[in-house]
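Q: Sequence in, structure out?
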Amino acid sequence: MDKQVATAAQALADVTDGRSFAVGGFGLSGVPEVLIEALYESGAGDLTVVSNNCGVDGRGLGVLLAAGRISRVTGSYIGDNKEFARQYLAGELEVELIPQGTLAERLRAGGSGIPAFFTPAGVGTPVAEGGLPWRYAADGSVAVASPTKEIRVFDGVEHVLEHAVTTDYALVRAARGDRHGNLVFHRAARNFNPLAAMAGRITVAEVEELVEPGELDPDDVHLPGVFVQRVVALTPEQAADKGIEKRTVRER
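A: Exactly. Output:
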């Protein structure tokens, strides 16, 4: 039951090339940056990543991206990262762009044992009809395009079939957690972290405040420990290091 691991490096010691990762975070909120840094230090490459976005230049998943460690991304937002755009347009990166709610449900379905589901989101668009450029060739042509998806009608409304997402690992960050893996997330960090955690076969959580089992009120737990295999306690300095995507200031 004690899932605590001493360091992030130890928690990811069994990672090899070609593995897939579901990664929590929303923008830079709730991004497991300590685990991402440990993954970078491991040297593993050819990684497949499923995440709402791919960080920004120099932070979050942007660190792995800039190092050429990521070969494929499934996400719903690709802005605020110039290197991401460069690699995608140059044919160095495969990108599956899907509606944000669909991404959330594909992760949740994967963790719930649901292989696929129908949704009206994307009907009548290239999301359902296919042809979205997943990967470009060096000459700018489309090397890999998205496939056509099955459409069915329910109550007179067309719906598109979407498949669940499961990954080899999941990396998440929680505000509080215990050694049994029960986790509590703070505000926007709750958007994708619980869903990413559910989708991973091996889920590793970095926790800003680690408490003893029994200290968390069960009603306060956002993700039960059954979905978490490894827990890493952050130092106060690591917990306090939180990036800001766009700093806006005004005159007093």
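The mean pLDDT is 95.
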